[in-house]
Design brief:
With 992 residues, the protein is α/β, with parallel strands linked by helices. Helix content is 38%, strand content 16%. The protein is built from 38 helices and 35 strands. The strands form 9 sheets. The chain has an 11-stranded mixed sheet, sandwiched between helices. A hairpin with a 2-residue loop joins strand 25 and strand 26. The longest helix is centred in the middle third of the chain and has 21 residues.
Length: 992
C-alpha cells in the first residue's frame, strides 16, 4: 500500500475491524462522530450521585483535600449491568467494579461490530489486553464489610477484567492488564499489534475503562494544579489552564490485514506502525514531559511504518490542555513532522479532549477511535475552546495547523496517513501510525424470492426488543438491502438460546412479521416463540408414502435451487434408465399424475432432492423414518441404497403394482389400532389394518366392497373416514402374490450400511439398512406400517426433537402431532413444501422453525451478502451496587446508591431440625448470591455457588450453627435439601 511519500507493508498492517465505546455524550462510535463533527462539548459537572463535589470544592489554588473545578465528563447509569447475559450471579455482580461490568458489555459490542461470533471465537488464539483505571469501588465494597475473594477480584486484583473476558469467550491467547498511566490503552494497542505481527496471536481485543466514583484523585491533581479551574480542556489555546477529568469505556478488535481480507471484514483504519518509549532522565522530573524522548519515539514509529513523517496529514495529540505539556508535545511534533514537508501541506493537529475531556487511562483508545473515524470519513473535526492559538501554531513556517473548524483531510490522491500519541504521567510515550483503508466495491446483492431473518437473545424481553429494532431498521429509508441485513444477522451474529425467525418475500412482509414478533402476536411468518433452547434437537427426516403429490410440485425449486436441480437430475437419469420417461418432464408439464407407476417415481425423486436441500442448509438428520413407499427415499438419504438402486426399487415395484389384476382400496379412519380391528369384524379375511399412524389414526386396506361396508358403518357412527388416492391395497394380503415377482426383479440390489440410522416401520426397530434387499422391499409393500410406534420410540428419550417431513405437502403432520401430545414431548414438526405455496419461501419457513428449535443451520448457504450495520444486542440492565451508607471522604461526604447488606443470621435454634436447616440455608444462600428466592431442590452450583462463595457459606454455617461443614461439602451437595439432611448426624459445636 502506498501513502503520501512512502510505501508500507500491507502484510504487516493490522486492521481495526471492530470498535465500541461509551464516552461522555456518546454511546457508540457513530454518536461520537456526530458529537465531533457538530462541535459538541460533552463536559458537564460532577454528578451529585457520585459524591458531594460542592462540599469538596475550593477555588483556592493548591488547597489540600479540595477540588478546584466541578467540571468533568461523566457517563450515566454506571450502576446498570446485564449480569444474566454473561452468566454472572447477582452476588458476584454487586462485588464487581462497574468498570469491569461496563467493559464486558463494550467488548461484546466491539465483537458484534467486528462481525465475530462467540462460536467462532471459542478456543481461538485471541489475545486480550484490557485495563481498568483505579479501584475506587473497593471503598464501597470494603465499607459494606465485603472482603472475600470475589470482592477482591472484582475491584482490586490487577488484570482480572482481561481474564473475565477470556473466560467468557473461551479465548486461549495471552491475557493481561496493562498499566502506563494515561498511556495505558494505547500501549496495549502497541503490544497487541506486535503480537499479531509476530504470529503470537490471531486476533486481539484491546481496551480500557475509567470511572470516577470518589474524589481522591481529584484532590491530588487539584493540589498539583493540573485540573482546569475553568472546567475545559483547551488544547492548542494560549490560555490553556489544565485538563478536565473524564470517564469512559472503549474497546477495539484488531486483526492482521490479510486475515481481515480473507474473512471479508469491514475496517475502520489500518495500523501500520507503532513505537513506545520513556522519558528516562531526559526531562526535568519524573512527571515532566521531555521533548527529546518524544521525538525519538515519533521517529521510531514512522520507521516502523515505513513512512516518512512528512506524509502524515493529521495527528491526534495527547493534548490535555496543560500549559506544561502541550508546548513540549507540539514542538516535538513540529521538529519531526516538519522534516521534508512542503510548506503548502501542513499537518493538522487536534485533540478529542476538547470535546469529551481527558479519559486518562482510556485516553489513548479514545484518540485512536477518533483518528480512525477521521480517516474513514476523510474529515477532521474542529478542536474546541481555542481563542488564541498557542505559539507553536503561530510561528512562521510551522508545519502544524490547529483545525478550528471542521475540514476535509487532504491527501492529494494518496492514502491518508494519521498518527495518535499518548503520554503517561510516569514518562511513558506511545505513538501509533494509521492509514486509511481503500474503499471496496459494493456490488448490489442478488434479489431473492424470499428472505429468512434469524433473531436470538438470552432474555425474552431482549428478543422482543431485537425484533422491534430490526423492524425499525428495515423501515428506515436508508436501510441496507434485505439480503445484506439477513446475511449479517445470520452469519455475523451470535445465536443465543432464545430464538425465533421471520420469513418474507419482501421488505413489507418482513417488517410486518417483525412487528408481530415485537408485540408477541402470532403470525404465519414468525417461527418460534423464544422458548429457551437447552440442547440441540434431534433431527428426524420423515418420508411419507403416496398422497402428497400435486400438479406442478417442485417446479420452482428446479428452476431456483442448484442443489435441488442437481440431485433431482441424478434421480431423473436413474428413473429414465428404468422406465424410459423423465420425471423432470412430468413435473415441467404441470399435469396431474394419478397412476402409481408414474406417481411413485416422481414423488421419490422429489423426496430425495428435498433431502439434499435440507442437508445443504446444514440440517443433518440423526435418524430417518420412511412411511410405506417413502422408505425408499429414506434409504437413499441414509446411504443404504444408491440412487440407481433406489430407482430400481421404486420403478420396478410400482410397475408390478400397476400391472396387477386384484382390485384394492385404502381408507384412512380416525380410530386407534384396536378399535379399527374391531370395526373390521367379520371382514378380517378381506380387510386389515395396513397402517398405524397414531393412537387415533389408522388406514384400513383390502377389498373395495368390504371396505365400503365398513366405512358406511363407521360414518353412521360419526367416525371420520377419508379414501386414500390409490387403486390398490398395499400393506394387505391382496399384494402378497407380488412377493416372488419382487424377489426376482430386485435380486440385483446391493444394500450397504448407511451413514444415518433408519427407524424401520416394517421391522419396528432401528436398522443400518444393510438388510434392505429384495425381501425387505417385499415386506415393505405387504406388511403393516408401524409409524405410530416409530414416533413413540423417537420421543422416548425425552431429547428435544424436530420432525422434518420430506414431501411436497405434509400429510403426516396430524399423526406426528398426536405422538408429540401423547408423549408430552418437547418436539416440533416442520414441512418442506406445501401445496400451491411458494416453495423456497416455504422451505425457509421450515428452516426458521428448525433454527428456533435450536437446530444447526448453514446460513452461509442461503446466499451471499455484505456485512452491514444491524442492531446490536439490547442489554437488559438491572441495578447492581453495594451500599456502604455514608462513605467518608476527606473534605466531604458522598452518598453511594443503596442496596441491602448481608446481615448476621441467627437460626441456631431452628437449625436443630431438617426444615429449620433448609430455611436457614435458603436465606443464607439467597443473601450470599443476591437471589430473591432460592429453590431448595436445585443443586447449589446451578444456583451460582462458586468455590469462593462455598468457602464463605461454609464458614458462616460453622460459626453460626456450630456444624462442621467445608466448602467442598457444599459443592458436592446435590441441593439445599440434601445438604440439610447430610448435616443432621454431624456433631454440633459451640457457636462462636
Amino acid at each position: 500500500m502506498t501513502g503520501a511519500g512512502g510505501t508500507f507493508d500491507a502484510g504487516r498492517s493490522v486492521i481495526m475491524v471492530g470498535v465500541a465505546c461509551r464516552f461522555p455524550g456518546a454511546r457508540n462510535a457513530d454518536e461520537l462522530w456526530e458529537l465531533l463533527i457538530s462541535g459538541g462539548d460533552a463536559v458537564g459537572e460532577i454528578p451529585r450521585e457520585r459524591f458531594d463535589a460542592e462540599k469538596c470544592y475550593s477555588a483556592e489554588s493548591g488547597k489540600p483535600h479540595t477540588i478546584r473545578s466541578l467540571g468533568g465528563g461523566y457517563l450515566n447509569d454506571v450502576d446498570n449491568f446485564d449480569a444474566g447475559f454473561f452468566g454472572i450471579t447477582r452476588g458476584e455482580a454487586e462485588q464487581m467494579d462497574p468498570q469491569q461490568r461496563m467493559l464486558m458489555e463494550v467488548v461484546w459490542q466491539a465483537v458484534e461490530d467486528a462481525g465475530l461470533t462467540a462460536e467462532g471465537l471459542a478456543g481461538s488464539n485471541t489475545g486480550v489486553y484490557l485495563s481498568t483505571f483505579g479501584t475506587e469501588y473497593w471503598d464501597f465494597v470494603r465499607a459494606a464489610g465485603r472482603s472475600g475473594l470475589h470482592a477482591a477480584m472484582g475491584t482490586v486484583v490487577p488484570g482480572m477484567i482481561a481474564g473475565r473476558i477470556a473466560h467468557h469467550l473461551d479465548l486461549r491467547g495471552p491475557t493481561m492488564g496493562v498499566a502506563a498511566n494515561c498511556a495505558t490503552s494505547l500501549l496495549a494497542v502497541h503490544l497487541a499489534v506486535r503480537a499479531l505481527r509476530h504470529g503470537e496471536i490471531d486476533l486481539a481485543i484491546v481496551g480500557g475503562a475509567q470511572l470516577m466514583l470518589s474524589p481522591d484523585l481529584h484532590f491530588a491533581v487539584s493540589e498539583a494544579e493540573m485540573l482546569s479551574p475553568t472546567g475545559r480542556s483547551r488544547f492548542g489555546d494560549a490560555s490553556a489552564d489544565g485538563y478536565v477529568r473524564s470517564e469512559g469505556v472503549g474497546a477495539v478488535i484488531l486483526k492482521r490485514l490479510p486475515d481481515a481480507t480473507r474473512d471479508r471484514d469491514r475496517g475502520y483504519a489500518a495500523i501500520v506502525g507503532t513505537a513506545t518509549g520513556n522519558n528516562g532522565r531526559t526531562g526535568p522530573s519524573l512527571t515532566a514531559p521531555a521533548q527529546v524522548a518524544q521525538e525519538s519515539t515519533l521517529r521510531a514509529a514512522y520507521r516502523d511504518a515505513g513512512i516518512p513523517p512528512s506524509a502524515v496529514g493529521y495527528v491526534e495529540a495527547h493534548g490535555p490542555g496543560t500549559p506544561a505539556g502541550d508546548p513540549v508535545e507540539l514542538q516535538a511534533l513540529a521538529d519531526v513532522l516538519g522534516e521534508g514537508r512542503p510548506e503548502d501541506r501542513p499537518c493538522l493537529v487536534g485533540s478529542v479532549k476538547s470535546n469529551i475531556g481527558h479519559l486518562e487511562g482510556v485516553a489513548g483508545i479514545a484518540g485512536l477511535i477518533k483518528t480512525a473515524l477521521v480517516l474513514r470519513h476523510r474529515t477532521v473535526p474542529a478542536t474546541l475552546h481555542v481563542t488564541k492559538p498557542i505559539a507553536q501554531f503561530r510561528q512562521p513556517g510551522t508545519p502544524l495547523r490547529l483545525p478550528r473548524r471542521t475540514q476535509v483531510l487532504p491527501a492529494e490522491g494518496q492514502t491518508a496517513i494519521a498518527g495518535v500519541t499518548s503520554l503517561g504521567l510516569a514518562g511513558a510515550i506511545v505513538h501509533v501510525v494509521l492509514a486509511e483503508l481503500p474503499e471496496r466495491g459494493r456490488a448490489d446483492p442478488q434479489e431473492r424470492s424470499a428472505y429468512l431473518l434469524p433473531l436470538s437473545a438470552r432474555h425474552p424481553e431482549a428478543l422482543r426488543q431485537t425484533a422491534q429494532r430490526y423492524a425499525g431498521l428495515l423501515e428506515s429509508p436508508a436501510a441496507p438491502a434485505l439480503a445484506d441485513v439477513c446475511h449479517t444477522a445470520a452469519v455475523r451474529r451470535t445465536h443465543f438460546e432464545r430464538r425465533m425467525a421471520v420469513v418474507g418475500s419482501d421488505r413489507e412482509e418482513l417488517v410486518a412479521a417483525l412487528a408481530a414478533a415485537g408485540r408477541r402476536q402470532g403470525s404465519a411468518q414468525v417461527f418460534g416463540d423464544g422458548s429457551p433452547v437447552t440442547e440441540p434437537p434431534k433431527i428426524v427426516f420423515v418420508y411419507p408414502g403416496q398422497g402428497s403429490q400435486w400438479p406442478g410440485m417442485a417446479r420452482e425449486l428446479l428452476a431456483s435451487s442448484e442443489v435441488f436441480a442437481r440431485r433431482f437430475a441424478e434421480c431423473d437419469r436413474a428413473v429414465r434408465h428404468e422406465t424410459g420417461w423423465s420425471p423432470a418432464e412430468v413435473i415441467g408439464s404441470g399435469a396431474e399424475v394419478s397412476t402409481m407407476d408414474f406417481v411413485q417415481p416422481v414423488l421419490w425423486s422429489v423426496q430425495v432432492a428435498l433431502a439434499a436441500v435440507w442437508r445443504d442448509f446444514g440440517v443433518e438428520p440423526d435418524l430417518v423414518i420412511g412411511h410405506s413407499m417413502g422408505e425408499v427415499a429414506a434409504a437413499v438419504t441414509a446411504g443404504a441404497l444408491s440412487v440407481s438402486d433406489g430407482a430400481a426399487v421404486i420403478c420396478r415395484r410400482s410397475a408390478l403394482l400397476a400391472a396387477r389384476r386384484t382390485p384394492g382400496a385404502m381408507w384412512a379412519v380416525q380410530l386407534g389400532e384396536q378399535a379399527a380391528q374391531r370395526a373390521i369384524g367379520e371382514y378380517a379375511d378381506r380387510v386389515c389394518v395396513g397402517v398405524v399412524n397414531s393412537r387415533a389414526a389408522t388406514v384400513l386396506s383390502g377389498d373395495p366392497d368390504a371396505l365400503a361396508e365398513i366405512v358406511a358403518g363407521l360414518r353412521a357412527d360419526g367416525v371420520f373416514c377419508r379414501q386414500v388416492r390409490v387403486d390398490y391395497a398395499s400393506h394387505a394380503p391382496q399384494v402378497e402374490p407380488l412377493r416372488p415377482l419382487l424377489h426376482d426383479v430386485l435380486a440385483g440390489l446391493r444394500p450397504r450400511p448407511g451413514r444415518v440410522p433408519v427407524r424401520s416401520t416394517v421391522l419396528d426397530s432401528v436398522v443400518d439398512g444393510s438388510g434392505f434387499d429384495a425381501g425387505y422391499w417385499a415386506d415393505n409393500l405387504i406388511l403393516p406400517v408401524r409409524f405410530e410406534s416409530a414416533v413413540r420410540a423417537v420421543l422416548a428419550d425425552r431429547r428435544p426433537t424436530v420432525f422434518v417431513e420430506i414431501s411436497p405437502h405434509p400429510i403426516l403432520s396430524l399423526a406426528i402431532e398426536d405422538g408429540i401430545q401423547d408423549a408430552a414431548a418437547r418436539a416440533w414438526q416442520v414441512a418442506s413444501l406445501r401445496r400451491d405455496e411458494p416453495e423456497y419461501k416455504t422451505m425457509l419457513g421450515g428452516l426458521g422453525a428448525v433454527y428456533a428449535a435450536g437446530g444447526e443451520v448453514a446460513f452461509d448457504r442461503l446466499g451471499d451478502g455484505r456485512f452491514v450495520d444491524v442492531p446490536g444486542y439490547p442489554w437488559q440492565h438491572e441495578r447492581f451496587w453495594i451500599d456502604a451508607g455514608e462513605v467518608e471522604w476527606p473534605g466531604g461526604t458522598g452518598a453511594a446508591p443503596r442496596a441491602t447488606p448481608i446481615d448476621a443470621l441467627h437460626y441456631a435454634e431452628s437449625a436443630a431440625t431438617v426444615p429449620g436447616r433448609v430455611r436457614y440455608l435458603r436465606t443464607a444462600v439467597g443473601l450470599l448470591l443476591g437471589l430473591p428466592d432460592v429453590d431448595p431442590a436445585v443443586p447449589l452450583p446451578a444456583l451460582g455457588l462458586s468455590s469462593v462463595f462455598a468457602v464463605q457459606l461454609a464458614y458462616q454455617v460453622r460459626t453460626e450453627l456450630g456444624l462442621r461443614v467445608s466448602g467442598r461439602d457444599l459443592l458436592g451437595a446435590a441441593s439445599i435439601e440434601d445438604l440439610a439432611r447430610e448435616l443432621e448426624p454431624r456433631p454440633r459445636e459451640a457457636v462462636s
